[in-house]
Amino acid sequence: MKVGIIGSGGREHSICLSLKNSSKIDKLFCFPGNAGTKNIAENVNIDLENFENIRNFIIKNKIDLVVVGPEKPLVEGLVDYLERFKIKVFGPNKFASQLEGSKIFTKQICKKFNIPTAKFGIFENEDKAIKFLKSTNFPIVIKADNLASGKGVYICNNEQEAIVAVKEIFNGKFGKAKNLLIEEFLEGEEMSFFTIHDGRTFKNFDTAQDHKRVLEGDRGKNTGGMGAYSPSRLINEDLKNKILDKIIKPTLKGLSELGTEYKGFLYTGLMIVKNEPYLIEYNVRMGDPECQTILPKLKTDLTDIFLACCEQKLSEINIEWINKKSLCVVVCSTGYPDTFEKNIEIENINNIQLNKDEFLFHAGTTEKSGKIFAVGGRVLNFISLSEDLKLARENIINNIKKLNWSKGFYRKDIGYKVID
Length: 420
Ligand code: AMP
Ligand code: GLY
Hints:
globular; binds glycine; binds adenosine monophosphate; Rossmann fold; Dna Ligase, domain 1; single chain; five-stranded parallel sheet; alpha+beta
């Protein structure tokens, strides 16, 4: 069969590779893909906002299944649009994608179903928000309601910082803002918990710990993710059951009462406080870099899993995993997450010889005349599977040293809480 993958990051390269290993795949297409997907799929250069062109390409090339990687096309309704033309698509519909697209939508579900989350208030204008800030304790968290590529969240340590955040959001830094969210700061350790859904049933899809800050020791600005390890050191049977019973099942019930069902990956971002889970956010997709950290451990054919989800037969599938741990380090362009140069050649990439249990996924790369160039902030993902995360990290760092790329940087301390 032919499968199309929407997106161009490390997440999509890892999905392409997992599908490529399936005997059922004849051809993969990646929209628009990167230099890594180009080796295993046909990259299709189409504007992801042009749903009609995407649909025409899919129909013309007789693509049997489409997998949507990133949040933006999900939140904009690509799944609903393609399904109207009887195209099989893995991913949630536009309504359910509000779980990621609107933080206030999610908070309202939390309130109705008593889902543990940070206490919050919704403010419709600058004056009311600033008035509230005069009487509150710090730190406090201020969030834009809409999609902001992880940048619309401010952790504020005092009133001045909070006022800047409120003004930036209402001045439209993340698009037109009708309101914003002010919430209690939760002190604990974060965990990413993944599930996969077919609209009727769902299954667990492993856990990970992302490292969102740009500098070692979790300092500096927030990024899309500098590296991850899996499984999270925090997961245990008791915690897993609490997450399912107190957070995920009530959310699905809430969606069902609102008249929709959930199909696709669901990423539950949690703060764990003394073995109790609090919902920080939902994402309606796999995480990046969590996806490229987790998928190499998957034993079960990913094509079968996606098809089962589209046919509401997930209950018939047993999802199996290789019994190893996984670690991923992201190599970024110098300057990220602020400005960085583009079109810089990665000269030594062919020096990297991967052993079994090692993986290299591209993110912001492009290929021109056989040479690989960095065109994005996050550029390459190095993954290693091992019984021992310390060994996995050493393998990765050896590989990155062979890359010896002067225009890039990476965190050497991924997994430090569990390794060091
Ligand atoms: P979000 O985009 O909502 O995931 O927020 C981005 C990051 O901000 C999270 O990964 C957390 O590290 C942090 N964060 C968000 N909300 C809170 C909160 N209520 N308490 C503490 N940290 C938070
Ligand atoms: N790694 C965080 C995210 O995918 O949103």
